[in-house]
Design brief:
434 Repressor (Amino-terminal Domain); alpha/beta; 6-stranded mixed beta sheet; elongated; 12 helices; disordered N terminus; 2 domains
C-alpha cells in the first residue's frame, strides 16, 4: 500500500489533508483497508490520499467525514488542497495521468497535451485565452510541459493516441509550427511505449467519437474516462459509461490507419506544411 511521503503537512495543503486523514483513521482504529470498505473503495485508494499522491475529492471527503465523525473537517481541508497549475476542470484528470498504467486518448480537433510541442501549446493557449496576460499564458504552457514528464518514466504509462485527420489539417501556430508539431509526434512514435494512429475522414462511418476522450487504467483502481469540451471537462467513473467509451475507443482504434501508415501520413503532411500546402490527404 502507498506509504506516507516525506512532505511537510504545514507547508503542503495536500500533505496536511493526508496527515489529517491518517490521524482520524488511526484514531478510529481502522486500517486503510477497513476504512476503504466503509467508504466503498480500496485500501490503496485511501493510501493515495494519505500519501498525497492523489488530489483529494470533495464527495469522498464528505463520506469520510461522515464515517470518521469529523464534522466537515476533511471537506474544508479538501477545498484548501484542491489547488492546481492546470484548469480546475482538468485537475483531477491530470492527477490520474501520473498514476495511470495506460492512457488511451482520442483527439478530434487538437493535438493531445502530452504530445504537444511548446510552440504548439503556446499558440493554442493564446488562442483559447485571447485577453489573458502573457505571464498567465506562459504559466499554463509550463504546466502543460510539466505534464509530459510522465513520459520519461521507463515503465509507465503506455500512451496510445488516436488523432482524427482533422487534427493534422488545423495549422495551429502557422504552417511551419504545425509541421514541426507533426514531426515531433512522428519522433515520439519511436519510443517503445508510444502508439499513435490517425483516423481518416473516410473511416468516420465506421467509428465516430464526438469529443476528446481519454481512457485511463490503473494497477489497483478501476478504469476511468475523462472527456473534454470547450472550457469544461468531465471525469467518468460509472462502470457502464466507462465501458461504453472504452468500446467506442476500440472501434476507433480498429478503423484507424496502422501506426506505420499513420507515421507516413504525419511526415507527408508535415512536408506539405513546409511547402505551405495542406489539405485532406486521405481523399
Amino acid at each position: 500500500m502507498p506509504q506516507p511521503k516525506n512532505l511537510d503537512p504545514y507547508t503542503d495543503p495536500r500533505a496536511f489533508y493526508g496527515a489529517e486523514l491518517r490521524r482520524l483513521r488511526e484514531r478510529a482504529g481502522l486500517s486503510q483497508e477497513q476504512l476503504g470498505e466503509k467508504v466503498f473503495c480500496s485500501g490503496s485508494y485511501i493510501g493515495q490520499f494519505e500519501s498525497a499522491s492523489r488530489r483529494p475529492q470533495l464527495d469522498m471527503s464528505r463520506i469520510l467525514d461522515d464515517v470518521l465523525g469529523s464534522g466537515e473537517h476533511l471537506q474544508r481541508l479538501c477545498r484548501l488542497a484542491r489547488t492546481s497549475k492546470v484548469a480546475d476542470y482538468f485537475a483531477d484528470a491530470a492527477e490520474l495521468e501520473r498514476l495511470a498504467q495506460t492512457i488511451s486518448e482520442y483527439a478530434p480537433v487538437l493535438v493531445p497535451g502530452l504530445l504537444q510541442t511548446e510552440e504548439y501549446a503556446r499558440a493554442i493557449t493564446r488562442t483559447a485565452n485571447p485577453f489573458a496576460p502573457q505571464e498567465d499564458v506562459e504559466e499554463l504552457v509550463r504546466a502543460r510541459m510539466d505534464r509530459q514528464r510522465i513520459l520519461e518514466d521507463p515503465a509507465v504509462p503506455v500512451l496510445w493516441a488516436i488523432l482524427h485527420e482533422a487534427v493534422l489539417l488545423a495549422p495551429i501556430g502557422g504552417p511551419q509550427a504545425m509541421g514541426r508539431q507533426l514531426l515531433h509526434i512522428a519522433e515520439l512514435m519511436e519510443r517503445p511505449r508510444m502508439v499513435v494512429q490517425v483516423l481518416p475522414f473516410s473511416a468516420m462511418s465506421e467509428a465516430f467519437m464526438g469529443s476528446m476522450v481519454s481512457v485511463m487504467t490503473f494497477t489497483d483502481s478501476p478504469t476511468v474516462v475523462y472527456t473534454e469540451g470547450a472550457g469544461s471537462g468531465r471525469l467518468i467513473e460509472n462502470p457502464a459509461l466507462v465501458e461504453h467509451n472504452a468500446r467506442a475507443y476500440d472501434l476507433a482504434r480498429a478503423a484507424a490507419l496502422s501506426p506505420s501508415a499513420s507515421r507516413d501520413l504525419l511526415a507527408s503532411v508535415a512536408e506539405d506544411y513546409a511547402n505551405h500546402e495542406h489539405h485532406t490527404r486521405s481523399e
